[in-house]
Amino acid sequence: MMSQAGLTGRTRGLLVLAAVSAGLLAGCAKRDSITVGAIPDDYRTNHPIVISEREEVMDVPVGASALRMSRGQRDVIAGFLAGYDTEAGTPMRILVPANSVNAAAAFMIAGEIENLAQAHGVHRGNILIQSYQVTAPEAAAPIRVSYYAMRASTNPCGRWPEDMLAHHDNKHWANFGCSYQNNLAAQIANPADLIGPRKPSPVDPENRAGAIDQYKNRGITPDFNENSEITY
Predict the structure, then answer these.
(1) CA triple 17-19-21, angle to 5 deg
(2) Which domain holds residue 66?
(3) 180 lies in some domain
């Protein structure tokens, strides 16, 4: 038969275990539901740089008595064509007004724009010359030149849904990092570089061997000595 002391110890152990279990269950019942990381606090997440196809548009003003493009117009169109990707080969549209007062002049200048585009690497088969109807025939309507190109961009800046001084937890506000991301996206010449690295160029074994030998011998090139400001 079990002694009274053993029974008492076992009873106390069961009571302690029951109390601990009840405390744990009570704690689970009163715990609030908190989702960690639900609100992003990274400007790269709030303002991601996205690669998308965007239409580039430029309007060329044409006078009713114009016979050819001016030098300034050629320079502006050449700058616009600099963003055209000749490897992508997307169609370029030249829209010419049909029923405006400058329709005849616009038709001649559209031919010059086509020749200028071909000189900048645009394939002749990718140039589409079309006409459009204007709502005010008495006005001199412009020639519209457009093409689609891959561009890196992010969402527009200027979102202030709440007071930035109300962030007592020292987290980023909604507009934080937006201008930085926009400037970075505007400086990317080839948006494909964000997708993956380019194919590496072939290795120059002679240059590599020379650099390794120079490092082993702890040599200093004459160019470094001539351009160095250290005299000791």
Answers:
(1) 70
(2) 55-147
(3) no
Longest dimension (CA), the chain: 123
In contact, 191 and 50? CB cutoff 8 Å: no
- In a domain? residue 47: no
Q: Kindly report the backbone phi and psi dihedral angles of residue 112, in degrees, each rounded to the nearest multiple of 5, phi listed first.
A: -65, -40
Measured CA to CA in angstroms, residue 158 lies from 47, 48, 155, 182, 214 at distances of 12, 15, 10, 12, 54
Res. 12 pLDDT band, cuts 50 70 90: low
DSSP-derived letter for residue 200 is P
CB atoms within 10 A of CB 58: 15
90 touches 54 (CB < 8 A): no
Using an 8 Å Cβ cutoff, are 131 and 104 in contact?
no
- What's 59's domain CATH number? 3.30.1330.60
At residue 21, the pLDDT reads 52
Residues in CB range of 146: below 8 A, 6 or more apart: 55, 56, 57, 58, 92, 93, 95
Q: Which 3 state secondary structure label does DSSP give 129?
A: strand
Determine the pLDDT at residue 2.
Answer: 46
Domain count, the chain: 1
- At residue 56, φ and ψ (nearest 5 deg) are -95, 125
- Per the listing, tokens 């009873």 go with 11
Assigned domain for 108 exists? yes
Give the strand pairing for 127-132 and 92-97. Answer: parallel
